[in-house]
Write a structure and sequence with these properties.
309 residues; Arc Repressor Mutant, subunit A; D-Maltodextrin-Binding Protein, domain 2; 3 domains; six-stranded mixed β-sheet; four-stranded mixed β-sheet
Length: 309
């Protein structure tokens, strides 16, 4: 077994065929086929279905391990480089969309100034899409909304943020004042997050505590999509306060909801394995950037220090 065989298998899983894997690795299809055949011979099992390029159950298991092996190899190179020069390497960071709107610009500015030789790869998504990618090793880190379910992950608080009703200034709910009761929402249909998502978990908890049943106009997995629909006039929604950009305040208002807890946002990483120097550097830089009160917009509350959950 060698690293090129593992790289070939990962490339097939990511690109869906032997030919596309060869293109991604800068080689020819026969080389990819040979590497996979030798790996299958050594392990005594089929890893890839040749006609479809789909990984077998065994192939999926091997890919999960292979990502960790290659990650550790990259970490060795990065850690040794750290002792002799500037920190170099790459970091894959997942960010939920609403947090990414303000975190990514300030993080990129700080990263260019402090660690110019780190290649930062940022993937936007929801908890449901990003969390399994951290577990599998496709992402090094992710900024996610609490709760985070996977036991394989470390979690640490980054900040909390106000959850507010985003509504058109012409809507009846906007005329009830700067603050409304949770019960006042029961008479209106809302654009709500999908059941099982982190924000829906928070809203359902508040609903049970106050004996209120929220009515869904539609349910979606993705706060950026919910925000877009609200701003396109399809109905009010409950979102982080940062979702309302300053240029939209002439048409929309953020209304405080009594009894609704703030949303907790956490930084997660894999529990097992020692992170490489670039990952450690970006982790520290991210925490420092968010802790800078000048960087955080209104409605964001940063603890005095990151506290493990």
């Amino acid at each position: 077994m060698d690293l090129r065989q593992l790289e070939a298998l990962i490339a097939i899983e990511e690109h869906g065929s032997f030919s596309r894997a060869a293109d991604a690795l800068g080689t020819v299809q026969s080389n990819i086929s040979g590497r996979i055949a030798r790996l299958e011979s050594e392990l005594g099992t089929e890893l890839v279905e040749r006609s479809s390029g789909v990984l077998s159950e065994s192939g999926t298991v091997v890919v999960q391990r292979a990502r960790r092996v290659l990650g550790e190899m990259s970490a060795i190179v990065a850690d040794v480089a750290e002792l002799n020069a500037d920190v170099r390497g790459s970091v894959s960071l997942g960010v939920i969309g609403t947090a990414g709107r303000w975190i990514v610009p300030v993080l990129l500015e700080a990263q260019r100034a402090t660690y110019p030789h780190i290649a930062l790869r940022i993937i936007e998504g929801s908890n449901s899409t990003l969390e399994p990618q951290v577990v599998s090793g496709q992402l090094d880190l992710a900024v996610l909304a609490w709760p985070v379910e996977a036991p394989e992950l470390n979690k640490a608080d980054l900040f909390s943020e106000d959850l507010v009703l985003i509504v058109s200034r012409e809507h009846p709910l906007a005329h009830l004042g700067p603050s409304i009761s949770f019960a006042a929402l029961a008479d209106y249909e809302l654009l709500l997050p999908l059941h099982g998502t982190a924000l829906r978990h928070e809203l359902e908890l508040a609903s049970r505590l106050q004996g209120v049943q929220l009515r869904a106009l539609i349910e979606l997995d993705g706060l950026r999509t919910i925000a877009s629909l609200t701003f396109d006039g399809h109905g009010p929604s409950i979102l982080p306060a940062t979702a309302l950009s300053p240029h939209l305040t002439d048409k929309f208002v953020a209304v405080h909801i009594e009894g609704l807890a703030k949303r907790r946002v956490t930084l997660v990483s894999r529990r097992f394995g020692f992170p490489a120097a670039p990952v450690r550097a970006i982790t520290d830089l991210l925490r420092e950037t968010i802790a800078d009160t000048h960087a955080a917009p209104d409605g964001i509350y940063v603890p005095t220090r990151s506290t493990p959950l």
